Amino acid sequence: MPRDGITAIVPVWNRRELMAPLLRNLAAQTMPPAEILVIDNGSTDGAAEVAEAEGARVIRLGRNTGFAPAVNRGICESGTAWVAVINNDVSLAGDYLEKLCSAAAESGSWFATGKIFVAGKGDILDGTFDVVSRAGTAWRAGNGEPDSPKYSVARPIYSAPWTAALFRTELFAKVGPLDEGFESYLEDVEFAMRCARLDYAGVYVPAAHAWHLGSATLGPWHPATIRLISRNQVLLVARHFPSRFAWAVIVGQALWAGVAFRHGAAGAWLSGKWQALCKWRAFRSTYRSSRRLEDWLARNEEFLHNAQSSYWTWYFLLTRGGAK
Question: Cβ of 8: how many Cβ atoms within 10 Å?
Fold first, then answer.
């Protein structure tokens, strides 16, 4: 039986300058982790050595396996009732983990996340909880917006960004680990799909605050980032979406192509889609319909109608009368 307490899992690939501030931040929590596991994805700049010097247990994977395999290894190595997955470019308020743990325990939730701000941008939000459309595209609710009352209300959720989130370790025995076929990006959304199917809900805790640099390792429009997102959007659709969502998928993916092309990432977008098509049959073979999941996606789209984004404005204009 897992012992009480939290294991903090920090997947790392370089950016050694981030390690000491993060590990000291974790150690100073009002509910500090019982253990900090740094899962090193083949860093070459000494990040692993910095982590060891700060007292963390480092597991060296020897190569960049991606976010999902690194986190899964950390979960397997943990021996506590809770695991916290923390990005290396995050800073937590001193009571962040305590507030998440208390809220999840009191509500009987399986996981929890807080209100995350963009580091150095005042009250601008990095995100709160994830919202997923029928197109297979996801939005971190509040991303880029000033904080507002609508993001200050606690609520049950199925999809938490794994930027700085807390989970009951038992959840992974029930739902399964992150899908390592996704490597990085949208692997947390795919996990949320399984949570929604099986009705394992979490809680959004707006009183818990953190600050995120965001894409500190590669950058948001790095070709590798765009390739993986583009590929994994399609794999998400293959595994979880009914064929009657086809028009919404076409519209949403075409609009996202426009965003990628505008940022000079046309080649990466095309490469990702091609890789996904090569994997489509294998992922589609695991599809099972779920009314609970489809109802959750419908509620997500009700929320997205109010998103302050031209992407979602055009998406709803073009999908009106489409798949329901």
Answer: 29
